[in-house]
Amino acid sequence: MADTSGIKAGRAYIELGVGDKLTSGLKHAQARLKAFGVGVRNVGLGVAGLGMSIASPMVTAAKSFAHLRDVAPHLTPPKFMLIALPIEEHALLLNLRRRLDQFAFASRPG
User: Fold this and answer.
1) Closest CA to 52 of 64, 42, 44
2) N- to C-terminal Cα distance for the chain?
3) Could you tell me if 93 and 85 are in contact, meaning their C-beta atoms sit under 8 angstroms apart?
4) Which is more confidently placed, 97 or 37?
5) Residues near 93 by beta carbon (within 8 Å), at least 6 away in sequence
6) Is 60 helix (H, G, I), strand (E, B) or coil?
7) Which of 20, 36, 61, 85 could join 89 via S-S bond, C-beta 3.0 to 4.6 A?
8) Is 40 helix (H, G, I), strand (E, B) or coil?
9) How is the chain split among helix, strand and coil, in percent rounded to 5?
10) Higher-confidence position of 41 and 105
């Protein structure tokens, strides 16, 4: 009878070759999944940074508003009073303001 040990050794070589292809494919898939995970992580970090850049001024505004609410009762009333003017006097005051603005702009150096 023929010796079958050579056939078994050949079979092991074929199984080893298939195993190497499977291992290679799995390693390739692992690398692709890892790259995908890194990409998703980077997108998440970018969105988080954008959220922080939006939220930071809002928090500052809320703190300022809360501080103003605490301080407002202790503020003194304004030292001026609004006066209702007839239309004619209002037009005169606007004209005077325009002339003063022109004078201030003309007297500026440069």
Assistant:
1) 44
2) 114
3) yes
4) 37
5) 85
6) helix
7) 85
8) helix
9) 80, 0, 20
10) 41
What is residue 77's predicted lDDT score, i.e. its pLDDT? 67
For the chain, what is the mean pLDDT?
78
CA torsion sign for 94, 95, 97, 101 is positive
86: amino acid identity, one letter: P
And the tokens for 82?
A: 């609004």
Kind and range of the H or E element at 1? none
Residue at 96: amino acid letter: L
Q: How far apart are CA 53 and CA 47, in angstroms?
A: 10
Q: Which helix (H) or strand (E) holds 108?
A: none
What DSSP string runs through 77-95?
PPS-------HHHHHHHHH
Q: What CA–CA distance (Å, rounded) separates 24 from 40?
A: 24
Whether residue 39 is predicted with pLDDT greater than 60 in this model: the reply is yes
Would you state the pLDDT for residue 17? 60
Mean pLDDT of 14-24: 68
